[in-house]
């Protein structure tokens, strides 16, 4: 009786492996472009930080019954939160206990830049004792009720806009 029994060895055939590789390739070709870059995430994170700082200044104006200012400097890529413009008095950061100044382009905001600031043509936003936003003109030292306010942050190719609504002072990240 010279019959031989052929047993199939455990494992995958070449065809099975190729089918799995093709399926994985198609899946990654569809999914990866939809993930986006980390730049958009960094920009949104920085914009939410800015929105919370604006909200803090607004809340502080209401709680203390004094004007609060957020002074932006696009050229230097920073903003300061102040309780007085003349003389300039930067408030203390509530957590860090350092002057409340946020600088873009350095850690942790290394890849985020301050692209543009426009509060009715000015770069200073003020909140009164009711939390109502104002545009501050430094040359004439006048406050005007805000009609339009935006701050645009840029991270790589992604831009994120923070808007301040007139009258209500509602702050939105878009």
Explain what this protein looks like in three dimensions.
This protein is α+β, with helices and mostly antiparallel strands and 174 residues long. The chain is 28% helix and 32% strand. The chain contains two helices and eleven strands, in the order ααβββββββββββ. It has helices at 14-35, 38-64, and strands spanning 68-73, 78-84, 89-90, 101-103, 112-119, 124-127, 133-137, 142-145, 149-155, 158-164, 171-173. Strands 1, 2, 3, 4, 6, 7 and 8 form a seven-stranded antiparallel β-sheet that branches. A four-stranded antiparallel β-sheet has the order 5-9-10-11, covered by helices on one side. The longest helix is centred in the first third of the chain and has 27 residues, at 38-64. It is rod-shaped, with a radius of gyration of 27 Å. The mean pLDDT is 89.
Summed up, the helix count is 2
Helix content: 25-40%
So, CATH architecture?
Answer: 3-Layer(bab) Sandwich
Radius of gyration: 27 Å
| Largest sheet report | 7 strands, antiparallel
**CATH topology label:** minor pseudopilin epsh fold
**Number of separate domains:** 1
* SS content category: alpha+beta
Distance between the termini: 82 Å
Q: Secondary-structure element sequence?
A: HHEEEEEEEEEEE
CATH class: Alpha Beta
Let me know the CATH homologous superfamily. Answer: minor pseudopilin epsh domain
Shape annotation: rod-shaped
Quote the beta fraction. 25-35%
**Mean pLDDT value:** 89
Uncertain runs are none
> How many E strands?
11
């Amino acid at each position: 009786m010279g019959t031989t029994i052929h047993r199939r060895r455990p494992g995958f055939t070449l065809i099975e492996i190729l089918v799995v590789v093709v399926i994985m390739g198609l899946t990654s070709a569809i999914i990866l472009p939809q993930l986006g870059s980390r730049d958009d995430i960094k920009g949104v994170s920085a914009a939410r930080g800015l929105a919370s700082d604006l909200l803090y200044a607004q809340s502080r104006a209401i709680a203390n019954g004094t004007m609060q200012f957020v002074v932006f400097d696009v050229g230097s890529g920073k903003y300061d939160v102040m309780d007085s413009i003349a003389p300039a008095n930067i408030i203390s950061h509530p957590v860090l206990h350092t002057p409340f100044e946020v600088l873009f382009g350095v850690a942790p905001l290394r890849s985020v830049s301050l692209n543009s600031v426009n509060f009715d043509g000015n770069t200073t936003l003020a909140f009164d004792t009711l939390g109502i936003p104002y545009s501050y003109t430094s040359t004439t030292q006048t406050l005007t009720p805000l009609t339009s306010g935006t701050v645009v942050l840029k991270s790589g190719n992604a831009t994120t806009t923070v808007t301040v609504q007139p009258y209500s002072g509602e702050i939105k990240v878009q």
